[in-house]
Every structure is written in structure tokens, then in C-alpha cells.
TrEMBL record:
Name by which UniProt lists this protein: Molybdopterin biosynthesis protein MoeB
One Pfam family here: Rhodanese
Species, as recorded: Palleronia marisminoris
PROSITE patterns xrefs: RHODANESE_3
Rhodanese domain residues: 30-127
GO terms of molecular function: thiosulfate-cyanide sulfurtransferase activity
InterPro entries in the record: Rhodanese-like_dom, Rhodanese-like_dom_sf
Highest rank taxon of the organism: Bacteria
Gene3D superfamilies: Rhodanese-like domain
Amino acid sequence: MPITPVETLVANAKARIETLALEEARARAERGDALLVDIRDVRELDRQGRVPGAVHAPRGMLEFWVDPESPYHREVFATDKQLILFCAGAMRSALAVATLRDMGLENVAEMDEGFAGWTARGLPVEKRD
């Protein structure tokens, strides 16, 4: 059986999730209505920096950190705020949001354009020393 191309998986995910414009995602986070969740790999954060105030949840641990029954659960995800996920370019985030929706989370979306869009606009980025 042939492998489904990742582009197809991402397109299918995007068809069933909410994608917010970067400006709207930022505004919701700044109002305190949402939590920005950076799912990029820690090496990407080290190289490129991070969005101030965003919570880091590596893609490989996201489901475990969100699930309140998991031994790896993180309290930051036990919130009524909307979770707005982003990655580098809004592909991994689409797959991650689709998975969280499959888990039963309803108040979850992705940020269009990802970190690349954030930096292209010259928005604030924290760098590690």
C-alpha cells in the first residue's frame, strides 16, 4: 500500500481544524483569551528563538502533556483558554491540532504562517544566551 503524502495529511487536517490569521492569534493571546503553544523542536528554539510568552510543548510530547490522565500531564494545559498551536510554517501545527481535536479538545486552533510568519513581520523574538 502506498504511503499517503504528508502534504495530503496536512491538507486533510487543515480542512477540519480552525486556522487563525497570525494577527488574530497574537491579539487573542495578548488579551489573555488564548495560550500560544510552540510545538517546534527545542533545537529550532535554540537556533531561531521563541515567541515571548509562548509555552513550548515539543510535538512528540504534546498529547501526553495535554492529557490530564497522562503521567506526563502539564498543568499549563488545564486551562479554559484557547490553545493556539504553531510550528515553523503551519504544517506540523495542523497535524497536531487535528490530533488534539481527535482527543476531544474543542478550543484549539493553529496560527497561520507559524514562526516564519511571526519573524517575517518583525514581531518580538526571545533568543537564548
